[in-house]
Design brief:
The protein has 345 residues and is an alpha+beta fold. It is 64% helix and 12% strand.
Length: 345
């Protein structure tokens, strides 16, 4: 919600509150024939009915709601809500004492003090509840707008990613390599053709869901690596390691693959050992993915963009894993490294 709208909501609340306060004070003072000094009324009203609710309202709005209510800490919410109200009432009592002397709160001893503090606390608590309601409404509205924006952006980004994955150069090169294998080793050529078919099926159908089994994503990666290996005779060109149990682990589709595809696109010497190293470490709470590729000076201009673009990939991950990811990209000594950590409940 725009700040101007939030300001209008706050202004509207306080205008309504002061109007109600004016009506109550007008009705309460009508019975006094001699009238009451406006200065006295302003001091009492400020200390008793303005300061405590104002303090409690914004403590609940800025502190209580985001820290305790939004995190479902019901018990602490009640405790701190009461403490805020009582604390604001004590501030109001201090203000009365400053205006009228320290004895004004103890006209009838401790009973008078406690009753006035309790009354101001109730007023403050009512204002605090309104602060919580307003904050909840604003958050609810913002979440709806955010979800709409995320859905729109995610759709756009996913379309761009799908288009990027259907790389014609990769398809043409793979088909040509398989064609060359048909005469030499028809069995191996058939295996690669099946892998290519499964990759295309995965990209067209599996990526439509919000989450897939991590095992399927890994199968795609392994098949993609196997097809890329047909372009070189170097068996040690790529090294892929997996640690941890992937059973029952889920992941958003096509999160890891763009980094791997970019690594293959921009790796320089395909005859070097471990030109590309990929690792995946899986635990109960997180998935740590690392992809590293070496490149030469000839690839320097291309490595800056690195495929479909780091900004696009970052945005997609941020949309899919808000507050639950850490993406680090380094480029040192002709070695490009991506480290992505995904956490989950």
């Amino acid at each position: 919600m725009k700040k101007s709208f939030v300001f209008v909501i706050h202004l509207g609340f306080w205008v309504a509150y002061f109007f109600l306060l004016f009506v109550i004070l007008a009705a309460a003072t009508m019975g006094f024939s001699s009238g009451i000094s406006p200065g006295y009324l302003a001091k009492v009203g400020f200390s008793f009915a303005v300061l405590p609710p104002f303090i409690t309202f914004y403590l609940c709005y800025c502190q209580l709601f985001p820290k305790y209510i939004q995190t479902n800490k019901t018990g602490l919410s009640l405790v701190y809500g009461v403490l805020y109200a009582v604390g604001a009432a004590l501030v109001g009592g201090l203000s009365l004492s400053l205006f009228f002397g320290s004895g004004v709160m103890f006209k009838d001893g401790s009973v008078s003090f406690l009753s006035e503090i309790a009354c101001m606390s109730l007023i403050g608590l009512a204002a605090g509840i309104m602060g919580i309601i307003l904050k909840g409404f604003i958050n609810w509205y913002d979440e709806i707008k955010l979800k709409e924006a995320l859905l729109e952006k995610n759709t756009e980004i996913e379309l761009a990613l799908v288009k990027a994955q259907l790389d014609p150069h990769f398809l043409f090169n793979t088909i040509n390599n398989i064609d060359a294998l048909i005469l030499r080793d028809p069995k191996v050529a058939s295996e690669y053709l099946n892998k290519l078919s499964e990759i295309l099926r995965f990209m067209l159908f599996e990526t439509k869901t919000e989450a897939i089994a991590l095992s399927k994503e890994i199968e795609y990666i392994e098949k993609y690596i196997a097809l890329q290996k047909t372009r070189t005779l170097n068996d040690n060109f790529v090294r892929f390691t997996l640690s941890g149990s992937i059973a029952h682990q889920m992941i958003s589709p096509m999160v890891l693959i763009p980094f791997i595809e970019n690594a293959f696109k921009h790796t320089g010497n395909k005859k070097a050992a471990d030109a590309i190293t990929i690792s995946l470490a899986v635990t109960d709470k997180k998935i740590v993915f690392e992809c590293q590729n070496k490149y030469s000076d000839n690839n320097k201009s291309q490595i800056a963009d690195h495929g479909i673009g780091n900004d696009l990939i970052r945005k997609r991950i941020a949309l899919l894993y808000p507050g639950k990811h850490d993406l680090s990209i380094t480029n040192v000594n002709q070695c490009y490294k991506v480290t992505l950590t995904l956490t989950h409940d």
